[in-house]
Inverse folding.
């Protein structure tokens, strides 16, 4: 009887969705690529808020002199911690391409 209760409880825990904040992990000013990364542990369904990720990518692009960032490609998932044949922790990478030229106001000339 206890095993009948334990199995559904374990299955319910495996479907937990956990919000994660993606942070800038790599910036390439030459090609205008910004990569954001967040972690996902085993038995978790981690996700990130697309609006916040877009905002982080925009900030990184604007610091390099670009106007805005556009998401491209699918998220790249790589295993960072392995135990035997089981992946215990994954890193999910989101890619953005910087486009446009930032509007930099001209400084006032003093004579």
């Amino acid at each position: 009887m206890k095993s009948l209760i334990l199995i559904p409880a374990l299955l319910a825990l495996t479907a937990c969705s956990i919000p994660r904040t993606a942070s800038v992990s790599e910036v390439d000013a030459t090609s205008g690529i910004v990569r954001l990364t967040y972690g996902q542990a085993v038995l978790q369904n981690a996700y990130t808020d697309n609006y916040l990720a877009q905002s982080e990518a925009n900030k990184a692009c604007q610091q390099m002199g670009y106007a805005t960032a556009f998401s491209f490609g699918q998220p790249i998932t790589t295993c960072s911690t392995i135990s035997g044949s089981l992946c215990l922790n994954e890193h999910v990478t989101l890619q953005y391409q910087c486009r446009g030229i930032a509007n930099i106001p001209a400084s006032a000339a003093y004579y």
About this structure: The mean pLDDT is 84. The radius of gyration is 20 Å.
